[in-house]
Amino acid sequence: MANEAKKEPEKKSKSIVAEFKEFISKGNVLDMAVGLIIGTAFTGIVTSLVNDIFTPLIGIVIGGINFAGICIKLGEATLNVGLFLQAIINFLLTASCVFIVVKTINRFRRKKEEKPAPPKPTKEEQLLTEIRDLLKAQQKK
User: Fold this and answer.
1) Which parts of the chain register pLDDT below 70?
2) CA dihedral defined by 22, 25, 28, 31, rounded to 10 degrees?
3) pTM to 2 decimals?
4) Structure confidence at residue 6 (pLDDT)
5) Domain span at residue 20?
6) Overall number of domains in the chain
């Protein structure tokens, strides 16, 4: 009985390993990895856009307030409200950019799908094509 109990978890772990190998070997994992790398780089660009361009401009519009400097002190704790606001702006810009990219891709996909396939020739057209081909063949003789 002890041997049977040991064999069952081994089978389970082998099936999990096999499942994992199957998951890794699919092309979707590679696509996800590329997306993650590009997304990480994209986040750096958006973070710079927020911190170096938008946040100072918003600060100027609202009276020269530097978001990074906004904080609330509660006893010994400091709540960095400004940094949190920058993170929210960063998130909203990233989400907006991703939305625009996805919307653009979907528009191209729809246009591609909307292209109607050439209509199949009717039986009459097929017959006429065969007659034409036969006449051409007779002329060559």
Assistant:
1) 1-13, 27, 65-66, 113-114
2) 150
3) 0.47
4) 53
5) 2-134
6) 1
